[in-house]
Design brief:
single chain, 508 residues, alpha+beta, Vanillyl-alcohol Oxidase, Chain A, domain 3, Uridine Diphospho-n-acetylenolpyruvylglucosamine Reductase, domain 3, 3 domains, eight-stranded antiparallel beta sheet, six-stranded antiparallel beta sheet, 20 strands, 29% helix, 20% strand, globular, binds flavin-adenine dinucleotide, binds 2-acetamido-2-deoxy-beta-D-glucopyranose, oxidoreductase activity, Oxid_FAD_bind_N, oxidoreductase
């Protein structure tokens, strides 16, 4: 059965959403209009890689195409979720077959041309899926195919999670993946994949059947559990081992869910903290909780995204959150796709610049919660003085202690014996001179919270940072830990000419 992809409607964003509800906090008046990044970026394309572009155009089949600046396709291909992740490339290419991805990799490798691979384009780190060389966009890999007999879904690597959930809506099954619309399946799955259903089934990488992969030398192969090394490496190892053209996920049963968002005002933070502390004592695999905390000049405001994987939650599980006075609630029984689509407001507008870092802790204790709030207010205040458009938004995401017990050894996480709460800290801003300042702030933020967690007794001074949240200069040891030597060895064997080293990312 082939399912149709539904395009997403244009998105609201978290901060304007909350502002609409509580007009006192109109601190973040982001425009909701989306722009093509080509019209924002000022650089002109380098002439340097034009011969590579032409060689690719001559080598690919008619299912694929090369595009140049001043075309609609080129603009779409270099576009990212935030503007600081977009770059002016010499050309873009939209491969239409796995074989052509192999052809393209061979040309790029033999000419040593810098390139980038873009799935959903949600990387916040500059250069991770953008380049001044050849921009590859996987957009033509758009198929979503459910095979209910084998309990698997094939998903093309250009697909985004909203398209997946729309296609699987009312099929009675689902796959374990992203929580926010427009994020790509590719980057999320290659880095790990924290999901609403992770307490029940693990990460996205714990629910894989197969990868169709264009190896760095251009050969197309299927990677399954029987390929010991690549199976290990692809689950968390990012874009180091080739370009994935198709992900085959195992399905899980899916009925109606219960959930939605509660928005709280400034003065409710103590109650939110108490509720978070109590929630972490519970042990229900069907329950998931995300708590955004957002900087405003008047203090930190918070929200609670509640999720229960059944039409009715277990008695009492979310009562503490429901009891806190809230300005708005859309918590109800609904389809999974409807719950998911209601969270599109968490995306920053695509005109913003942005940086994210992950802070891994094993518990949101009282002092760790306070440290997150303090750092959010401290850096929010400092940087808002340089950019009134700043938003600082973090998301607390507690999981059960055994969240990593649902899968086998993988590149990430390096230690599956206990949970790490990955905690995304996001800065979105428009002042173009602040990139370095914000990166420094994020490092300092992370160090400060980690120090408090260590004092709290948490063994996190070298806890693995989630690769999909980690700031670009995070040392590889702090992501892959004890797995690093094995990953280096696999990378050398699979990519002796370091072709994937021509693309940005956490490079092994
Ligand atoms: C609003 C928001 C919500 C998020 N929610 C979640 C969440 O719920 N759970 C979670 O775990 N993470 C989440 N993330 C983090 C997310 O997993 C990463 O941003 C991820 O990198 C996005 O994947 P992408 O395909 O959209 O990004 P891209 O920028 O396209 O790619 C990211 C990386 O993957 C590489 N890549 C992309 N496609 C391929 C391919 N086909 N083959 C090889 N390499 C490839 C790129 O080269 C790049 O290095 C969220 C991020 C944002 C911004
Ligand atoms: C693409 O090429 C194939 C042969 O390789 C041909 O059969 C097909 O008609 C071509 N399609 C288009 C749109 O040109
Ligand atoms: C797929 O299988 C599940 C049981 O595993 C069933 O509930 C569902 O109705 C099936 N869906 C379709 C579209 O056949
Ligand atoms: C990968 O596996 C699928 C499904 O079994 C098969 O159709 C495809 O031909 C395989 N591809 C390669 C390159 O072996
Ligand atoms: C959680 O519940 C499961 C059984 O449902 C049990 O095996 C596990 O030990 C419990 N964990 C904690 C921390 O209570
Ligand atoms: C808040 O953060 C600042 C900056 O890191 C630090 O100097 C201060 O001690 C922190 N306050 C508390 C109460 O932790
Ligand atoms: C942008 O940030 C710089 C510091 O990096 C600051 O000097 C400048 O005043 C800021 N611009 C505006 C318009 O606030
Ligand atoms: C803030 O946003 C407004 C409106 O988009 C813009 O005009 C202004 O230049 C931005 N300020 C900074 C410091 O970037
Ligand atoms: C602490 O964490 C490190 C990984 O960061 C691990 O190697 C070590 O075994 C842990 N120590 C204890 C006592 O759990
Ligand atoms: C390509 O790389 C794979 C994996 O290392 C290897 O098995 C294969 O022989 C290589 N193919 C060619 C043509 O070199
Ligand atoms: C319950 C609650 O927090 N209500 C707030 C909703 O927003 C308005 C406007 O900001 C506040 O005045 C209320 O206190």
């Amino acid at each position: 059965m082939t399912l149709r992809c539904e395009p997403m409607a244009s998105l609201d964003n978290l901060f304007s959403h909350i502002s609409m509800l509580s007009t006192t906090f109109l601190v973040v008046a982001f425009s909701l209009v989306s722009f093509s990044h080509a019209s924002i970026l000022t650089a002109t394309p380098s002439g340097r890689y034009q011969s590579t572009c032409r060689r690719i155009a001559n080598a690919i089949s008619n299912s694929s195409q090369v595009f140049y600046p001043n075309s609609i396709q080129y603009d779409a291909d270099i576009e990212h979720a935030i503007v600081s992740s977009s770059q002016v490339s010499a050309c873009s290419v939209e491969p239409g077959s796995a074989a052509d991805v192999g052809v393209i990799l061979r040309v790029l490798g033999s000419t040593r041309t810098p390139f980038a691979v873009k799935g959903g384009g949600h990387a916040f780190n500059p250069g991770f899926s953008s380049t001044s060389g050849v921009q590859i966009s996987m957009t033509r890999f758009s198929n979503i195919e459910l095979n209910n007999a084998t309990g698997t879904v094939d998903v093309g690597s250009g697909v985004t999670w909203d398209q997946v959930y729309a296609a699987l809506d009312s099929t009675g099954v689902n796959i374990v993946g992203g929580r926010i619309p427009t994020v790509g399946i590719s980057g999320l799955t290659l880095g790990g994949g924290y999901a609403f259903m992770s307490n029940q089934y693990g990460l996205s990488i714990d629910n894989m059947e197969r990868y169709e992969l264009a190896l760095p030398n251009g050969t197309i192969t299927n990677v399954t559990e029987s390929n010991k090394d690549l199976w290990f490496a692809l689950r968390g190892g990012g874009n180091n081992f080739g370009i994935v053209t198709k992900f085959t996920y195992k399905t899980v049963p899916q009925g109606q869910v219960w959930g939605g968002t509660l928005n709280y005002n400034v003065d409710q933070l103590d109650l939110v903290k108490e509720a978070v502390l109590k929630f972490q004592q519970k042990n229900d695999t069907k329950a998931a909780l995300n708590v955004p905390v957002i900087y405003t000049p008047a203090g930190a405001i918070s929200a609670a995204v509640l999720f229960y994987n059944a039409p009715t939650p277990a008695p009492g599980i979310f009562d503490d959150f429901l009891a806190i006075p809230s300005n708005q609630s859309d918590v109800k029984t609904r389809s999974f796709a409807d719950m998911f689509n209601s969270l599109s407001f968490i995306n920053p507008p695509n005109t913003a610049r942005g940086r994210v870092n992950g802070v891994s802790v094993t518990q949101y204790s009282s002092s760790v919660f306070d440290a997150f709030v303090n750092q959010t207010l401290f850096w929010g205040g400092k940087i808002a003085a340089l950019d009134p458009n700043l938003t600082v938004a973090i998301t607390l995401e507690p999981f059960l202690k055994d969240v990593f017990s649902h899968g086998s050894d993988s590149a990430f996480p390096p230690d599956r014996s206990h949970a790490l709460f990955p905690t995304a800290v996001t800065f979105a801003y428009t002042n173009t001179s602040l990139d370095g300042t914000v990166s420094k702030a994020l490092r300092s933020y992370s160090d400060a919270v980690t120090a408090v967690a260590v004092v709290d007794g948490q063994n996190v001074s070298h806890a693995a940072v989630y690769p999909n949240y980690a700031l670009f200069d995070t040392p590889l040891e702090d992501i892959y830990g004890v797995n690093l030597p094995r990953l280096h060895a696999i990378r050398k064997a699979v990519d002796p000419k370091d072709v994937m080293g021509l693309a940005g990312g956490f490079k092994l």
